[in-house]
Write a structure and sequence with these properties.
This protein is α/β, with parallel strands linked by helices. Helix content is about 30%, strand content about 15%. Strand 1, helix 1 and strand 2 form a beta-alpha-beta unit.
């Protein structure tokens, strides 16, 4: 991101107009009970898209008088960072670049991650300084759930094989499966997992889930209100983390919707794959490092699994030489399950709602537990 974002002059000077002619009205901002002063906010590029005038207007409405500083993917900024107290981190700002920003921004109190996963936000400096971290929980739940439902329908109804028959000009009817006869297992039952459960329940599938706190069932975590889902999320069975082998053994589709932490890396390893129901499909809409990719490739080649739908990988972009592209029972997509025309606006809405709370000195929503990593 280059150029000014529509910033206003700090320290009581007259506001200036940014792109689109959006003024930043002067006015105090506090946050976390601090003494009133003009607020400086660093904005990383959100979801690879430039901020529109409506986005900047929403941010200025939440924090009148704020000075906005653009931060690029390499950590460079178009203005001073010494007085910045709030950082909106976009997906393009990696951990090393984030620490470079924080080193020049000693007053940062709060980082908002536009993404849900925060493994690249919990850097040494973030943890050392105990900076409050919030995330974009609820922003991507609906498009990701729609992606999962699309893939379950496509594979259950044999769409890949039907398309291959079309290419071969072969007339060969194939038998599919009805979704009400399937069990969908969801590993991770936060906002994304609950949305998947809603879509699965809407088509009559049986749903089982693994959750750190199974006693909460399909209850939503406290935080920013999500878009209304098609039907209330439900799970026929909610298991603790120790129940993962039971979920794997029962599920026709295993959906990974959990965060990447030290305890979940390579969760789906040789043993987990061997525990899966024969012919089951693995669907990953979370992080690539949740899976031992070498073990998965072996299981797919040996025919133990029906297949895999992979939207996240250990290395992204997935190298052209990756064997995953060539396996006939694998669907590879370029980390796009979250994408829709609505997500940028929804991301800014979630940040702006929290920013208004910060200005008023109120508790923030979607706060990440720095110890657990989500």
């Amino acid at each position: 991101m280059t150029g000014r974002i529509g910033d206003t002059a700090a320290h009581g000077s007259e506001p200036r107009s940014g792109p689109g002619g959006i003024p930043g009205p002067a006015g105090p901002a506090s946050g976390f009970g601090a003494a009133p002063e003009p607020l400086s906010i660093a904005l990383g590029q959100v979801l690879w898209a430039r901020y529109g005038p409506e986005d900047l207007a929403r941010i200025h409405e939440a924090a009148p008088g704020a000075r906005l500083v653009a931060v690029a993917a390499d950590g460079s900024a178009d203005g001073p960072l010494d007085d910045v107290r709030v950082l909106l981190r976009g997906s393009s700002l990696g951990g090393d670049a984030l620490d470079r920003v924080l080193a020049r921004a000693p007053r940062v109190e709060w980082i908002h991650s536009a993404s849900v996963g925060v493994e690249r936000v919990l850097t040494p400096l973030t943890l050392q300084r105990g900076i409050v971290v919030t995330n974009g929980r609820g922003v991507f739940s609906r498009p990701i759930a729609e992606y999962v439902l699309m893939m379950v329908l496509a594979t259950a109804r044999r769409l890949p094989a039907l398309l291959e028959l079309q290419r071969e000009r072969t007339w060969q009817p194939l038998q599919g499966e009805e979704l009400r006869d399937l069990t969908i297992g969801i590993v991770g039952f936060g906002s994304i997992g609950r949305a998947v459960a809603s879509y699965a329940a809407a088509v009559g599938a049986r749903v089982i889930a693994v959750r750190r706190h199974p006693e909460r069932g399909a209850e939503a975590e406290a935080g920013v209100e999500e878009d209304p889902l098609p039907v209330p999320p439900r799970a026929d069975l909610v298991l603790p983390p120790s129940g993962l082998p039971e979920l794997l053994a029962q599920s026709d589709y295993v959906v990974l919707a959990l965060p990447l932490t030290g305890g979940t890396e390579a969760l789906i390893d040789e043993a987990a794959l061997a525990a899966m129901k024969p012919g089951a499909w693995l669907v990953n809409v979370a992080r690539g490092r949740l899976i031992d990719e070498a073990a998965l490739q072996r299981a797919l080649r040996q025919g133990r699994l029906g297949g895999a739908v992979l939207d996240a990988f250990r290395e992204e972009p997935l190298p052209a030489a990756s064997p995953l592209y060539d396996l006939p029972n694998v669907i590879v997509t370029p980390h796009t399950s979250w994408s829709s025309a609505r997500v940028r606006a929804r991301s800014v809405e979630v940040f702006a709602a929290n920013l208004a709370r910060f200005v008023r000195g109120e508790p923030l929503h979607n706060v990440v537990d720095l110890r657990s990593g989500y």
